[in-house]
Write a structure and sequence with these properties.
This protein has one helix and 16 strands. The chain is mainly β. The chain folds into two domains: 90 residues, Sandwich (Immunoglobulin-like), CATH 2.60.40.10; 92 residues, Immunoglobulin-like (Sandwich), CATH 2.60.40.10. The strands form four sheets. Strands 3, 4, 6, 7 and 8 form a five-stranded antiparallel β-sheet that branches. Strands 11, 12, 14, 15 and 16 form a five-stranded antiparallel β-sheet that branches. It is elongated. The N and C termini lie far apart (79 Å). One of its GO terms (cellular component) is plasma membrane.
Length: 204
């Protein structure tokens, strides 16, 4: 039928982004349009045992989210991917090793604000996969008057905790911003979220 083996995927990379561990790749040069991809992974605990990833079998996209299939967040894993065209597979191409706990990259949390007469209640929601919710994610919160460099800092707040800010004495435009933080071997944090600002005790 004139089928040939498709070219192997290129730029195969296991990366952490926004709390997730994702394998990404690009199609090999001259890849046929009908090509699909299949992913497997192995962990340092069981070298040589490549485990299937059910949701990344015969897929058309060029990425695979491995976060919730990882057997252990404290062990290095790597993944591999092959292209398949018709019945013909390319060779497997492997990524480097990564460990979720050490290598996770954080995204800023989304702030939810409830402005009352003399206080603001703030909590943060994180774009987390359910399988990593139990980790001790924290967030840091900055609060300041717009235009001022003087920021009040609330640090190391547990992910599900609400911060209450007393605004009785405040007048004017005030802003909030937060970042996710996480203590593994070293201390990590995300960038700060875009500031959210509000007018306080604005009479009239």
């Amino acid at each position: 039928s004139g089928y040939v083996r498709p070219p192997p995927p290129q730029n195969v990379t296991l990366l952490s982004k926004d709390f997730d561990m994702i394998l990404t790749w690009t199609p090999g040069e001259g890849c046929p349009p009908d090509v699909t991809y299949t992913v497997r992974y192995e962990s340092r605990e069981r070298m040589g045992k490549w485990i299937k990833v059910p949701h990344c079998k015969n897929i058309h996209r060029t990425s695979c989210n491995l976060t919730c299939v990882l057997p252990n967040f404290f062990v290095k894993v790597r993944a591999r991917v092959k292209a398949v065209s018709g019945r013909f597979p390319s060779p497997w191409v492997e990524s480097q090793f990564k460990e979720y706990y050490l290598d996770v990259e954080l995204a800023p949390p989304v702030l939810n604000m409830n402005v009352k007469e003399n206080s603001i209640h703030v909590n943060a929601s994180f774009p987390l996969a359910s399988c990593v919710e139990s980790f001790s994610w924290m967030y840091d919160l900055n609060f300041w008057e717009a235009g001022s460099e003087d920021k009040k800092q609330y640090e190391g707040i547990f992910r599900k905790k609400t911060v209450t800010i007393d605004t009785t004495a405040l007048r004017g435009n005030y802003c909030l911003s937060a970042r996710s933080s996480f203590q593994s071997i070293d201390f990590k944090h995300s960038k700060f979220s875009q500031p959210m600002c509000m007018l306080l005790n604005h009479k009239g």
